[in-house]
Amino acid sequence: MKNFKRFLKYLIPYKKFQILSIVFNILYALFSSISMLSLLPMVKVLFEEEEKLREKPMYNGIKDFNLNYLENYLNYFITKLNDSKGSLITLITVVAFVLSAFLLKNLFSYLSILYMTYLNNGILKDLRQDVYDKIISLNVAFFSNERKGDLIARMTSDINTIKVSFMGVLMMIREPLTILFTLAGMFAISWKLTIFVLFFIPVSGFLISKVSKNIKSQSGDIFALEGHLLSNIEETLGGIKIIKNFTSENYFSKKFKDLTEGINTLNNSIGKKMSLSTPASEFLGILVISVLLVYGGSLVLIDKSLSGGAFMAYMGLAYQILTPAKAITKANHALQGGNAAYERVAFILDAENPLKDKTGAKVISEFTKEIKFNNISFKYKEDYVLKDFNLTLPKGKTVALVGESGSGKSTLANLITRFYDVNEGSITFDGVDIKDVTTKSLREQMGIVAQDSILFNDTIANNISLGINDANEEKIIAAAKIGNAHNFISEFPDKYQNNVGDGGSLLSGGQRQRIAIARAVIKNPPIMILDEATSALDTESEKLVQNALENMMENRTSLVIAHRLSTIQKADLIVVMKKGRIVEQGTHEELLRINGTYTNLVSLQSLEVNLNIS
């Protein structure tokens, strides 16, 4: 129930629908009782040998308005109608009244459900948006520790479970009201029988609650397994070529089967409990009705304290309690599953973002001087990737980082864009610690072209203009030309409106990379970060991409992380890294004269190129 209370904050924007639904639920509950009570005068007057009132009952104010007065007045009205119009017309009139009561009951039921549906769908929309907004606001490290499929499950199926369960709870407001009004009618007819009924209701409720005791915990286990299942599917689809190449279909099939078997076992366990709840609650209800028949029948036949017509109306009211009682039971079971689902969704909503902007963080609008790494140290987990690292990136200069894999080159790109924060030291942007500026304004000063060009399943134009609100066709084409992409784009049937496919699958690696460069160009940032942007390309594609990169870096500050040393020979400063430290730095010519680590790397790559050629 704690999770449900937290969920109530989403009701505020839709309080109009909530109020309307409550009003119609009250009217529904009221007319549910009236519809059954309306049968009482018809039974008593038309089908019983009972004294018929031909004098209008006296009414001297609200104190006289009670069930006895109402019953006497209906007796008088029906008797008078029967005497003047005959039994058939009287029967038709009474039936019309009963039908009207049932019609109003169902009309109010429809209206209450309608407005509750508007309320529930609005809440679902807002909850989804909050979860999505939180996901895209979290730092990169959060996603490194979580399965993508599990996060997708939390954002989709778990939220749908919340919708169903909490809709049931919100709708449950009518059920206690129906029971309340029905009990009022039952008390009015016979307080003895009603006290008898009230003794059995708590007993029935206790027995039913025992059935659903473990539903919440098992529901949570199912949601977790379904998240793993979705992750497994996502990994399978993403790595289908590797699975086939290594003939590991049986391994993945068994892994998937184990997950589905676990889900099936838990689903059967919950299904067994939930399947038992409805017939159990119905049987207990019928048991109460059966006992009532015996006890109530004795009041009619032996004690003579209750008329047959009143008893029939009473039994109708008593049976009417069964439906809301079963609805409350189902809502309780749904609430258990909803609580488990909400705890999984709350995991995202409650996730802390250690990189959240400070209060009063500065907004930067230009780059005027330099970026400095001041004695920084950083580790992802246990071991330091960078230790006591110092480097200056002056405005207008190109600084290249080279070194063996794992030396910390890409980590510097992650730190300068503040995907992660340094553990020690500081990174300053024009003398201001980047922890003291807004992340958005910092990243607006930078464009990134990485080794893996991430494209979205959209048009080429939309991929190039990503994040640019005022990008027109002229700007997109100009950026594509600088990125050396305009020629091949023009060959597509739909040109810039051509879809790139899932992850850019309809394009070659070189084409994807040049679109990524055009995307960085149209952003027009003062600083460019190139993270091994050509390392995965063939020689011909590399040349085209390298030309595009040189066009893009012109008159800009650039940090280049290079795998192929031939691409950074014109850099103003080449920094050679090893195990998170700088071992050499200088221009290409200066480093060759040192005849150290850089010279060795150049020799190894030259040998590799010669071997490939031969």
From TrEMBL:
SMART domains: AAA (SM00382)
Superkingdom of the organism of origin: Bacteria
Annotated SUPFAM superfamilies: ABC transporter transmembrane region, P-loop containing nucleoside triphosphate hydrolases
Residues of the ABC transmembrane type-1 domain: 19-337
Subcellular compartments: Cell membrane
Gene3D superfamilies: ABC transporter type 1, transmembrane domain (1.20.1560.10), P-loop containing nucleotide triphosphate hydrolases (3.40.50.300)
Alphabetically ordered keywords of this record: ATP-binding, Membrane, Nucleotide-binding, Transmembrane, Transmembrane helix
InterPro entries noted in UniProt: AAA+_ATPase (IPR003593), ABC1_TM_dom (IPR011527), ABC1_TM_sf (IPR036640), ABC_transporter-like_ATP-bd (IPR003439), ABC_transporter-like_CS (IPR017871), P-loop_NTPase (IPR027417), Type_1_exporter (IPR039421)
Residue ranges of the TM segments: 20-43, 88-108, 177-201, 283-302
One GO MF term attached to the UniProt entry: ATP binding
Membrane topology: Multi-pass membrane protein
Coiled coil: none
UniProt cross-references to Pfam families, sorted A to Z: ABC_membrane (PF00664), ABC_tran (PF00005)
Residue ranges of every copy of the ABC transporter domain listed in the record: 371-604
Protein name per the record: ATP-binding cassette domain-containing protein
Source species: Mariniflexile soesokkakense
